[in-house]
Specification:
Blueprint lengths: L9 E3 L4 H9 L4 E3 L5 H11 L2 E4 L2 H9 L4 E3 L6 H12 L19 E5 L2 E4 L5 E3 L2 H32 L4 H17 L1
Parallel strand pairs: 1-2, 1-3, 3-4
Antiparallel strand pairs: 5-6, 6-7
Helix pairs in contact: 4-5, 5-6
The chain binds zinc ion.
Protein name: Mut7-C RNAse domain-containing protein
Organism: Acidianus hospitalis (strain W1)
């Protein structure tokens, strides 16, 4: 499936509430319910053309058999690593702009109420740039630098693969892989 030039939409499985909130803050249409069953995740992904986000390998295999896009999140990934990976794979913009955010509670679209306040058009929850916004920005800075590191290590691995594969080259490449594993 080609995801270029297209704003990705997501569906997070019932275990990934935190990730769903993050994607909504970043402005991505993300379906989430804490009691959704696997068959329904697949059904909604199919209907709305959403990328499935899950830690459940079985669910991912079933989804891929149906031709759906599924991102299997490794069990040891924290939110920073997940956001970095999603940004590389689906072009997620790691910049928080409250005016482009969605409601983290219900995925609704926000409308501006006054200079510093926004309100969800669906559940009416209000948002403003309080102290928490600073925390959001700090985490996104970390996610961005993680993304850069991941991209660098990916590029150097690809370069090594493409070059003359002398034993020295493959040794370097293995060392890099170990480095990456440690970082994660
Ligand atoms: Zn809402």
């Amino acid at each position: 499936m080609c995801l270029d030039n297209m704003q990705s939409k997501f569906i997070a499985d019932a275990m990934l509430g935190k990730l769903a909130r993050w994607l909504r803050i970043l402005g991505y249409d993300t379906y989430y319910s804490n009691d959704i069953e696997d068959w329904k995740v697949i059904k909604i992904a199919e209907k709305d053309k959403r990328v499935i986000l899950t830690r459940d390998r079985g669910l991912c295999i079933r989804a891929k058999k149906k031709g759906l896009e599924c991102f299997l999140i490794p069990p040891d990934y924290d939110i920073i690593s997940i956001l970095a990976k999603l940004s590389i794979k689906y072009g997620i913009d790691l910049e928080a702009r409250i005016e482009a955010s969605r409601c983290s509670e219900c995925n609704g679209i926000l409308e501006k109420v006054d200079e510093n306040r926004w309100r969800c058009t669906r559940c009416k929850k209000e948002y403003w740039k309080g102290k928490h916004w600073k925390t959001i920005e700090e985490i996104l800075i970390k996610a961005k630098s993680k993304k850069e590191k991941d991209e660098l290590s990916y590029n150097s691995r690809t370069r090594n693969r493409g070059g003359q594969n002398t034993s020295q080259d493959s040794k370097t490449s293995n060392n890099e892989k170990i480095g990456v594993a440690k970082l994660n």
